[in-house]
Every structure is written in structure tokens, then in C-alpha cells.
Design brief:
Helices cover 60% and strands 0% of the residues. By secondary structure, the protein is an all-alpha fold. The chain has a single domain, classed as Hypothetical protein af1432.
Length: 213
């Protein structure tokens, strides 16, 4: 309730409302088909739930239709076909979408490189990535960390068995991503990512985490 003398905080408004048209619907159907049968780690939750969540965050963070489409498709190369899939994304949805999807992919060959090697390479890539890629990546990581926090509250330390990096590697990865994505300036999504990672650190005891080496 607004009272006399209070200041109402307002979210920044776009100049124009984002219109989600037939391309977005086609991208949703494409993502649902390619990820059909996949679930989130150690759960029965359809993987499309994660993709919807990331697209929602991208739109809330100021993204347009292209970036919402890229959010829906950000894992399709890594999980559904590798490099040839990127060509299909480019053909169907255009070069801007394909560039962001490529920028959010840490492996496009099979078998994948070792986990730590892939994550270090991805973090180095983010340092020079464009704003479009960084927005979608931040939304992806925010959705992931929020899920880890929720699962940690439910099952505790056993959550780390789901991750290739284990406890130490996973905390290192998200802590490093948080610090990188806060550069050069914060936005709505990176602020929320910072809060989520900080909450995860607090839940795990706030103990210093080694870098996994």
C-alpha cells in the first residue's frame, strides 16, 4: 500500500511492448520436439520447463523476440545434435538467434570434453561475448541456481551427486559466473543471479570454496 510521502519503486519500462509472433511459437514447438523425453537433472520435470523459465527471465530482463527464441533454444545444440543442429537453428530462426545459441553452448561435439575444461573455456568466452549472449546466459544460470537452491532446501548435500563438478566444482562455477556476469555493470537478471548464488553459498554454510584444482 502506498502511503503519503512514500516513494514507489517502478521497474524500467520498454518504449514498445515485445510482440511474440509465429516465429516464437515455432521455436517453442521446435524446442519441445527436440528436447522431448528429456528431464531436469535427477527429476521427472520435463526439460522444456527450464527453457520456458529462461525465456521468461530474458523477456523480464528486456530481451526481444529473437532473444526469447534463443533462450528457448539455448541448449538444443549441446543436447540435441551438436554443430549440425546450429546450422538448422540458423536456417529456421536467423543468424542473430544462432549466434546467441552458439554463444550459450559449451560443447558441440561428442563425446564432450572434460567438465572442468569446458567450464573454464565457457567462462573465458563470456568475457568477450556480446550483450545478447550475456543476457541469455545470465538468465540460464539464474534459473539453474534457483533450482539448485530449491533442491538443496529439500534434500540437502545429496544434491551435489547430480552434478559432474560435485559440490566444490559446482559452487566454483556459479560463483565465477556470478562475478563475470556482473561486469561491466549490473542489470535486473545479474542482480538476481548475485542474490541466488549468495543464497546458495549461505545455505551451504558460507564456507570458502576451493576452485576444484
Amino acid at each position: 500500500m502506498k502511503t503519503a510521502g512514500s516513494k514507489e519503486k517502478r521497474q524500467p519500462q520498454r518504449k514498445h511492448a515485445v510482440k511474440l509472433g509465429a516465429r516464437f511459437l515455432r521455436a517453442f514447438q521446435f524446442a519441445a520436439e527436440k528436447h522431448a523425453g528429456q528431464t531436469r537433472k535427477a527429476s521427472t520435470i520435463p526439460y522444456i520447463a527450464h527453457l520456458i523459465g529462461v525465456a521468461s527471465l530474458v523477456l523480464e530482463g528486456g530481451g526481444d523476440e529473437d532473444l526469447a527464441i534463443a533462450a528457448l533454444l539455448h541448449d538444443v545444440v549441446e543436447d540435441c545434435g551438436g554443430a549440425p543442429m546450429l546450422k538448422e537453428v540458423r536456417r529456421r530462426f536467423g543468424s542473430r538467434v544462432a549466434k546467441v545459441v552458439d554463444g550459450c553452448t559449451d560443447a558441440d561435439t561428442f563425446p564432450k570434453a572434460p567438465w572442468r575444461e569446458r567450464k573454464e573455456k565457457y567462462i573465458r568466452h563470456l568475457k568477450t561475448a556480446d550483450a545478447d549472449t550475456r543476457l541469455v546466459s545470465a538468465a540460464d544460470k539464474l534459473n539453474n541456481v534457483r533450482s539448485i537452491v530449491s533442491d538443496y532446501r529439500a534434500i540437502g548435500e545429496s544434491v551435489w551427486s547430480r552434478f559432474n563438478g560435485g559440490r566444490e566444482g559446482t559452487l566454483w562455477y556459479y560463483r565465477t559466473l556470478r562475478d563475470e556476469l556482473l561486469r561491466p555493470k549490473r542489470n535486473r537478471i545479474t542482480r538476481e543471479l548475485e542474490l541466488a548464488v549468495n543464497e546458495l553459498e549461505s545455505l551451504t554454510g558460507g564456507k570458502p570454496v576451493s576452485d576444484g584444482r
